[in-house]
Design goal:
Layout: E1 9-14, H1 20-28, E2 32-38, H2 41-54, E3 63-67
Parallel strand pairs: 1-2, 2-3
Length: 71
């Protein structure tokens, strides 16, 4: 069984926009795994471009942006 300090910290960034806050959250703690949700497809595309351009290698696989909309 993993100790609490080894468990991932799951972060949900609703309305992630450009994804910068999601990146910041992942950088704040090495255990953070962040999913950004953006309803606007154009803004989601920008966020994915930001992740591709500026995401440091140590955050690879720990930050993602997905589309979503509540009904």
């Amino acid at each position: 069984q993993k100790k609490a300090e080894e468990e991932p910290i799951r972060v949900l960034d609703l309305g992630t926009g450009t994804g910068v806050l999601a990146l910041w959250a992942a950088q704040a703690d090495e255990r953070a795994v962040v999913v950004g949700v953006e309803a606007n497809p154009a803004v989601q595309a920008v966020a994915n471009q930001v992740l591709q351009r500026v995401q440091p290698p140590e955050l690879a696989g720990r930050v993602s942006v997905v589309g979503g909309r509540s009904q």
